[in-house]
Amino acid sequence: MKILCFSLGQLQANCYFLIKNGECLIIDPADEASFILEELQRRQLKLIGMLATHGHFDHIIAAGEIQLSIKTPLFISSEDRFLIDRLEETAEYFLGFTPNIIKPTPINLPTGEAGQLIGVKCKIANFEFEKIPSPGHTPGSCCYSFKKEGVIFTGDTLFKQGIGRYDFSYSNRNELKKSLEKLLKIPKDTIVYPGHGEETIIGNEKEFALTLF
């Protein structure tokens, strides 16, 4: 599996292209829909789906416009659907102006039962992965683990030498800590692709992440 990373929009959210046999699965469609669509066409990729690590506008703002051009699902946790309803409001707050936003049509991935599994196995076309609930930054934050490839996409839960904010009204400090404790148990050589900034590995974050509370 080939992984491409593009940092898009004013908040530089990471948009990931996961590529296999000419098919592309996007994790966090972020911003700049025209750029994403041009890249798909230039690289002759078939978009088969989009996964959102959480519902914050800077990670999904391009999804609706992409869906106008390509009929493809946006998968997001049901607990974060309320953030889609707030897209214009939150974008205006953080950007200082109201962008022209086309709201995406979301679909829920299975969530499983809390506490029973570290992840819920999912498959989209040739892509097999686990959805790992990681609430705290937002109620529906999740990570996507591709065990065969040894990589995990952590959104705004875990960064290189950093963790997600938990000062929003809907955030939960204790839940974020539990989520991080769970993530830090996965193999230490797993490559972490975060929602912002550079990649890292789990082993480099084990001693640091939980000191930030």
UniProtKB/TrEMBL annotation:
<feature type="domain" description="Metallo-beta-lactamase">
    <location>
        <begin position="12"/>
        <end position="196"/>
    </location>
</feature>
<dbReference type="InterPro" id="IPR051453">
    <property type="entry name" value="MBL_Glyoxalase_II"/>
</dbReference>
<dbReference type="InterPro" id="IPR036866">
    <property type="entry name" value="RibonucZ/Hydroxyglut_hydro"/>
</dbReference>
<dbReference type="InterPro" id="IPR001279">
    <property type="entry name" value="Metallo-B-lactamas"/>
</dbReference>
<dbReference type="GO" id="GO:0046872">
    <property type="term" value="F:metal ion binding"/>
</dbReference>
<dbReference type="GO" id="GO:0016787">
    <property type="term" value="F:hydrolase activity"/>
</dbReference>
<protein>
    <recommendedName>
        <fullName>Metallo-beta-lactamase domain-containing protein</fullName>
    </recommendedName>
</protein>
<keyword id="KW-0479">Metal-binding</keyword>
<keyword id="KW-0378">Hydrolase</keyword>
<dbReference type="Pfam" id="PF00753">
    <property type="entry name" value="Lactamase_B"/>
</dbReference>
<keyword id="KW-0862">Zinc</keyword>
